[in-house]
Amino acid sequence: MPPSPLEEDIFPSTPGKIKIERTHHYTMNRSFHRCFTSTTTMFLWALLLIALTASYLSIQSFVDTGTRFLHHPIPRDHVIIGGPHWEKKIRASAQVHRVHGLSVLVTGAAGFVGSHVALALKKRGDGVVGLDNFNDYYDPSLKHARRALLDGHNIFVVEGDINDKRILVKLFDVVPFTHVMHLAAQAGVRYAIENPHSYVHSNIAGLVKLLEQCKSADPQPAVVWASSSSVYGLNDKAPFSESDRTDRPASLYAATKKAGEAITHSYNHIYGLAITGLRFFTVYGPWGRPDMAYFSFTQNIRKGKRITIYRGKNGVDLARDFTYIDDIVKGCVAALDTSGKSTGSGGKKKGAAPYRIYNLGNTQPVTVPTMVSILEKYLKKKAKKHVVTMLGNGDVPFTHANISLARRELGYNPTTDLPTGLRKFVKWYESYYVEDHGKPVKY
Ligand SMILES: NC(=O)c1ccc[n+]([C@@H]2O[C@H](COP(=O)([O-])OP(=O)(O)OC[C@H]3O[C@@H](n4cnc5c(N)ncnc54)[C@H](O)[C@@H]3O)[C@@H](O)[C@H]2O)c1
């Protein structure tokens, strides 16, 4: 069917071609009308295009704020938040199942320490919601496996970045969290040489975004967060006490953790947020971090690959105060239970709130070669060792925690020695990975 004259006018068969040189009045009118309608149409199309471009750019910048420094951007569909289904899942996850139970937002919940703490809280009846950006600093499939584990215990882990204000606002809109257990961070000392910005993104900018949200929340939650033994830097007075110098960091990672202690102090001072910083000492155990020496040594010894062992410049072995994950979890939970309350609301301070810092270590430093020999025993295989003198890569020669303060105020009492903890780690490792033609695969 041929188009009606009107249809033809509105949708010219040759778009953009408008005859304007006809002198007949009617024709002029018609031309003018055609011209006008075409211009209007073009104008409307242009408006639509501008609107689409603007909304695309705003989505892009929203995604960017959260992912610019990530190794692996979050797929768009994972960024979409909100909606009744999402809120229902958040509420169910945050449901408290005991009298005086806590309602805790755990950042970094798909991480090593975060997944253990989230489970421990849920198991005793607290409400827990997780937040993690699942970046690929190390194999994200391990983070997804931890998430599946948490999912099985009705803990919902939101996929998002702590820099993403929209997600934080939404989470606090849905749940009046009593506590935030902040464990999301860019961890690792040596990686800072490769990707310094990821440390600033997560450990500085992300921390500030989170604290901004906490200070504005009504009620304000109490915040417990992970600092690190690395803040002791070049301190050589052993064991390390909370009152020792922490102004000589040996790595950018340590510097960002030290900055975190100063930043949290200012939020405590200005806004009345109750803050507890925990200086963890080399945490290890099942579901651990593949970038850490005990984990990568296990992988390489099993595969018959060479391992590199660093030694101090004067030929002294490096030593670490290895702390088993279950002991760290007990310390985190005790810190939450004793955190005290934030005093402010809606961004206004109403009185002084607690500001605390504790070492969470094991107080028994073990040298790296001793750790390797324990692994060799459990793996029933000799390591091919390559010993090299430590470069200036951010590692410190030893760590050793004084935990008297945490013992006294948190009732913290680590009970797992390195041989016991590594036996549990190797058992987990062997159940999680099976050898397939020399390649570890998950089953
Ligand atoms: N494991 C240790 O030996 C140790 C020692 C000292 C301090 N710490 C600190 O303890 C905390 C937990 O460490 P871990 O060993 O479980 O590390 P992890 O890397 O396994 O866990 C951190 C989690 O945070 C997530 N994350 C990172 N940046 C994020 C961001 N911007 N937004 C949202 N999620 C983000 C990561 O995806 C990861 O799952 C970290 O703050 C770390 O610096 C750990």
From TrEMBL:
Membrane spanning residue stretches: 35-59
InterPro entries assigned: Epimerase_deHydtase, NAD(P)-bd_dom_sf
Main subcellular location of this protein, as a coarse class:
Golgi
Query: Where does this protein reside within or beyond the cell?
Result: Golgi apparatus, Golgi stack membrane
Whether Thylakoid counts among this entry's keywords is: no
Where does the record place the NAD-dependent epimerase/dehydratase domain? 104-339
How does the record say this protein sits in the membrane?
Multi-pass membrane protein
Q: Which GO terms describe its cellular component?
A: Golgi cisterna membrane
> What EC designation does it have?
5.1.3.6
Under which main EC class is this enzyme filed?
isomerase
Q: Which family does it belong to?
A: Belongs to the NAD(P)-dependent epimerase/dehydratase family.
How does this polypeptide assemble, per the annotation?
Homodimer.
Query: What name does the UniProt record give this protein?
Result: UDP-glucuronate 4-epimerase
From what organism does this protein derive? Helianthus annuus
